[in-house]
Amino acid sequence: MIKINKLEIENVKRVKAVRMEPSASGLTVIGGNNRQGKTSVLDAIAWALGGNKYRPSQAEREGSVVPPYLHLVLSNGLVVERKGKNSDLKVIDPNGQKGGQQLLDSFVGELAIDLPKFMNSTSKEKAAILLRIIGVGTQLHELETKEQEIYSRRHAIGQIADQKSKFAKEQLYFPDAPKEPISASELILQQQAILARNGENQRKRQRLDHYESVRKSKGEEIARLEAELLKLKEEYAKIGEDLAIARKDAIDLQDESTAELEANIQQIDEINRRVRANLDKDKAESDASEYRVEYDKLSTEIDGIRQQKTDLLTTANLPLQGLTVENGDLRYNGQQWDNMSGADQLIVATSIVRKLKPNCGFILLDKLEQMDMQTLQVFGQWLEQEGLQAIATRVSTGEECSIVIEDGYVAGQEGVHLQPVPGEIDPGPSWGGTTWKAGEF
Fold it and tell me: Which site from 77, 320, 329, 334 is most exposed, i.e. has the minimal number of CB atoms within 10 Å?
């Protein structure tokens, strides 16, 4: 991993002249009060390594007649320098060959020099960056889209099943009601058939009465009309035969009652209401059962998709143990970003940034005064454990500060000038052949 071994900054924003050697690993804190030049140091490093898109809008220190000067020596031997009226970039590799911004871009992570851009993004944006880095973002998005679609379908089906069950429970049930609705026309036809048969019976009775009356009349006429006795006897015999037939037809006759049918016709609406209620209840219970089966089937599909997501992230090359993505949100040890401690947030951010450009062994952090001493200690220990370098600023002049900036200088080294005198040979990576430590010039 490539780190920053040494740096010199002069006349950039609020910096007058600063020279420092950051710790090779762990946390290097640049302390000082507000408006002294701390953030200007980080901005200068970002400009030097990230290119002109990180150039401050007012790069040259106000009141300075000398242009900005940036000189960094990296752990791979590269020397990065910006100087002169146009602050032109010069990159020299250990073999003396010149390079440019493209060489720096090959290993300098954009978020490493602009970590607040990552820290201030939303949890979903952080998760998207992580998924893009580990190469499973598209697959996970497809699975989550499918899961949400099936979840919505299952939710709708569950609601319908609940509604059907509730409707079935609220319906009255009539055990004595027929299975199918009764047709009024059929009952009327049955009634008409019975009335027709009864009418026929009545006609037969009337026929019997008629012949009995005729015979009686004829018998009386025998006594009165002897002259017609023979004829009357013949008629009488004939009538006797007809009478016998009529008696035979009428002897077993029994009228049927239409009372039940008349009652059913009068109650048909109530009966059919009960039948329909029973059918609705049966249908609702059947529908509810079918929707429950479909609901369970979709639940199984959702479980399968969630397992695929879990397997996908389990096998992915994540930058930090305990780091994962759930429902599009970044999580670390089960906690979402806003529930993580300050140290954990810094650890997660640094790990993801490192994954973007594995060869970039440093990050820049501004405004660490928001972190308490314990958070700084935990984060610093983790950096050392991982062999990473962090250069940070903090509004403080306490012991946690590696250097303190006062009015654009390292405290105790006011008035130092860093740019080579015009006409002299640039000493390059040897830093003038002098070995020095932070705060020693």
Answer: 334
Q: Among candidates 57, 53, 73, 71, which has minimal Cα distance to 117?
A: 53
Residues 280, 372, single domain; the answer is no
- Burial (0-12, 13-18, 19+ Cβ within 10 Å), 37: buried
- Please tell me the distance from the alpha carbon of residue 190 to that of residue 390, in angstroms, as a whole number: 100
152/268 same-domain check = yes
Cα 378 vs. chain centroid, distance in angstroms? 34
The string of pLDDT tens digits covering residues 133-148 is: 777 777 777 888 888 8
Contact (CB, 8 A) for 28 and 6: no
**Closest Cα partner for 388 from 430, 366, 357, 410?**
357
Could you identify the residue written with the tokens 């400009």?
47
- Classify residue 371 by its DSSP letter: S
Q: Do residues 408 and 37 touch, judged by C-beta distance below 8 A?
A: yes
- Does the pLDDT value for residue 121 go beyond 90? no
The predicted model gives 230-238 an average pLDDT of: 78
- Between CA 294 and CA 311 the distance in angstroms is 26
pLDDT digits (tens, 9 = 90+) for 194-205: 888 888 888 888
User: Do 265 and 191 contact (CB within 8 A), yes or no?
Assistant: yes
> Within 10 A of 396 (CB to CB), how many other CB atoms are there?
19
Q: At what angle do helices 123-134 and 342-356 cross, to 10 degrees?
A: 40
Indicate if the pLDDT at residue 423 is higher than 80.
no
Statement to judge: residues 395 and 248 lie in one domain: no
